[in-house]
Amino acid sequence: MIEKSDTCSETHKRILMCGNEALAEASIIAGLDAYFGYPITPQNEITAYMSRRMAEEGRVFIQSESELAAINMVFGASATGKRTMTSSSSPGISLMQEGMSYLAGAELPAVVVNVMRGGPGLGNIAPSQSDYFQATRGGGHGDYRTIVFGPSTVQELVDYMHLAFDLADVYRITVVILADGFLGQMMEPVLLEKKPHRELPAKDWALTGAKGREQNIVRSLWLPEGALEALNNKLKAKYELIEKNEVLCEQYEVEDAEIVVVAYGIAARIVRSAVSRAREEGIKAGWIRPITLWPFPTEQISRAAEEFKIFLTVEMSLGQMVEDVRLAVAGKAPVVFYGRPGGGTPTVDEILDKIKQLTIPEKR
Amino acid sequence: MKTVFKRTPTLKDCPTHYCPGCGHGIAHRLIAETIDELGIRGRTIGIAPVGCAVLAYDYLDVDMIEVAHGRAPAVATGMKRTNPDKIIFSYQGDGDLAAIGTAEIIHAAHRAEQLTVIFINNAVFGMTGGQMAPTTLLGQVTATTPKGRNAAGEGYPLQVSEILALLPGAIYVERCALSGAAGVRKTKKAIKHAFELQVEAAEGLSLVEVLSPCPTYWRMTPAKAMEWIEKEMVKVFPLGRLKG
Ligand SMILES: Cc1ncc(C[n+]2csc(CCOP(=O)(O)OP(=O)(O)O)c2C)c(N)n1
Ligand code: SF4
Ligand SMILES: [Mg+2]
Fold it and tell me: In this structure, which ligand is nearest to the CA of B24?
């Protein structure tokens, strides 16, 4: 990677920033060469911040005519070996799915930030976790995956933004940061400092002009018999490597728990408070927080399911991640869902109530 | 086979998949010759469309990318802005540029991107089996206009180059035809000019629309197809410089 000059003199000090601006600054520190985006609430701070800061850094910023164009600008810049990203919110991310499928087929690195809002359709602009299916199942057409991070603090937005660019380059894959409107808007103290990064492979596949070498071709069309199947199998091997090496997950007081609450992102912060209150009231509760949503911490949850009775999954949706929890639990324990869709947020009391219902015999 | 002229190095020495009498092969040769004459092979990146020319990288020996249907101008923008020293060209059909990719080409021109666009107008969707394109002539029979294109319901032939010429960000727009030796010569000149402008870092988009035969889906012999361009197509798509 080309080391960029540190863009923020305050990187070693904690400063107060909103999530959207913090992730934007983190990208700049991570060596972002080009940002492309189209405004949409609740992530407009990213586009505005980038327009100012990328110009200051002498790097590329374009407000595109649509999200279709934005993701294809990412496609073009990435194909030449540059670090590039786009950001949007749910409806815009839907428009990007075509481009994300092509990125997967062409094995180009990219980072896509989705600051989720309520859906379907135009939905609303309230925070939501309703794009989990889309993010973790590829999203566009064809057999492919993207790495998906579900950060739950502004600091994590920064940290996983740094890691996202490295993983994108290491695996030649799209990395999705699945945030939500709360995380984008909330102000928290952050350390912008870049953590030690991964060893990065040379981008000898990049389109740089065929000077003194054979032509490079970036493509996703494979017509001869068996050629696409070969690509799919190559991708499969890469996805398996990612599943083996890149799962991130946090857990708390799971060992002796009789109920394990699973949640990610902002919902996990609410769950954390609810579980602490449950413990104060003598209920043996714990939580598991997937940080990578793909690869999903299937093994960690499966292991917990060997020993514990009840799983409660809490989401700001009608129930999406719960399907992965069920797959991981594989019938070894009951899996219950509690969620609030459409911009609703589960409260600590609601979750605590649910925990009690599931654990206190007379409440069942 | 008799060698009529020397193959230019950037044109690969291999047979193409194009039908006999197709214009794509000629247009490829003109681009390859231009790249070699300008000595820019080592800093050129080409963009292949979704259309019959999707495999253009099998014939043109430069760094190339294949992109989603119609999105070439956005991809080109991402490349050029991050690599101002490179020469970026897109090669697009009338379905690619004038139907699904209309927004992308208009906005690339609107932003005055320093790009070279070769726009192959063959009045049909060749790749998918000869369906109506926005550029299909009135009365023209295609797979999806079995009774001939009717303005009521199917619209009039779309003159995208005329629209683009209106935009300040498009600095050079010319329409040529691959019919006859003179037509090919003029097309070559126009393509070369469109590349030269980018080499000189002229501030805007250059586009050459090329009226190009598709004998297969026009259901004509190659000779008749050339005649049809000269007699019918140019009436709706007049040749000449529209801008610059
Ligand atoms: C999103 C999408 N829609 C439709 C298609 C199918 N398709 C492939 S090529 C094409 C039209 C090509 O026509 P044109 O651009 O005129 O190129 P030609 O083959 O005539 O050179 C279509 C509709 C596709 N590949 N992708
Ligand atoms: S279908 Fe038409 S455009 Fe396509 S290769 Fe054949 S002649 Fe050329
Ligand atoms: Mg066509």
Answer: 2
